[in-house]
Specification:
The chain is elongated. It is mainly alpha-helical. It has a two-stranded parallel ribbon. It has one domain (14-156): Ferritin, core subunit, four-helix bundle (Ferritin, Up-down Bundle), CATH 1.20.1260.10. It is built from five helices and two strands, in the order H-E-H-H-E-H-H. The longest helix has 31 residues, at 14-44. The protein has helices at residues 14-44, 50-77, 86-93, 105-130, 135-156, and strands at 45-46, 103-104. The structure holds fe (ii) ion. Fe (ii) ion is lined by residues 42, 58.
Length: 161
């Protein structure tokens, strides 16, 4: 009688999984913070182009949630957990530029761009760091960078000359 075949949890090599977790975890935490701080911005923006900026911020929040999900699920698909509890998110990305109360749209836009730029720096580090380790995880980071670059463009176009 043959022994039941053991099915491994994932098909990944431990080095690949560790690298994916190392480089993609900061993206998950930064993007989760953006979903919260972007809502703060969405609720409190005032002034020029109110409707457009208010609605754009909701779109950016939705994208951030999708990007976080993609990065987190890549880590989990490789067999590792991620601590994305609120305490971990706050520790990584607590220092938002988004103000606590009402603010004019130009200031809100600059604040959200600043938060996005911090995530973009981690995203570039992930693209570079994963280059010789795991192209599939690097592709996740590239997809996120492409999306954040576009959202940043939509924001910056409101304040560019
Ligand atoms: Fe809303």
């Amino acid at each position: 009688m043959s022994k039941a075949q053991t099915v491994s949890t994932t098909a990944s090599d431990p080095t690949v999984a560790a690298a994916a977790a190392q480089f993609l975890s900061p993206l998950v935490l930064g993007l989760e913070a953006l979903t919260v701080n972007g809502k703060q911005a969405h609720w409190h923006v005032r002034g020029a182009n109110f409707v457009g900026v208010h609605e754009l911020l909701d779109t950016i929040v939705a994208h951030a949630g999708d990007f976080a999900d993609t990065a987190a699920e890549r880590i989990v698909a490789l067999g590792l957990p991620i601590d994305a509890r609120l305490s971990a998110v706050a520790e990584k990305a607590g220092a938002t530029a988004v103000p606590a109360g009402f603010a004019q749209s130009d200031d809100v836009i600059r604040a959200v761009i600043s938060d996005i730029d911090a995530i973009l720096a981690d995203t570039q580090a992930a693209i570079d760091g994963l280059d010789e380790i795991d192209l599939t995880s690097q592709d996740v980071a590239i997809e996120i960078k492409r999306g954040l670059d576009k959202d940043r463009w939509f924001l910056v176009s409101h304040i560019a000359a």
